[in-house]
Amino acid sequence: MLDIMEGLEFQENPCTDELADVLEVVHGLYDCFGSDTTEVEAHRKAKHEKRGGFPQGVILEKVIEGP
Asked: How far apart are CA 46 and CA 60, in angstroms?
């Protein structure tokens, strides 16, 4: 269902063309789950206000908990 390859291709070659492919996958997910951009954007904004975003493209890859 989810085309992971598009995300990997964007990671290897971050350009507008690859980002458009990733966005196409996202739009496919909207259709699959019966959502729309307005609903999802409202949830995204709420989460951003609560948890913050990804400044400078920094993404947490994993968390290692101590003993």
From this structure: 19
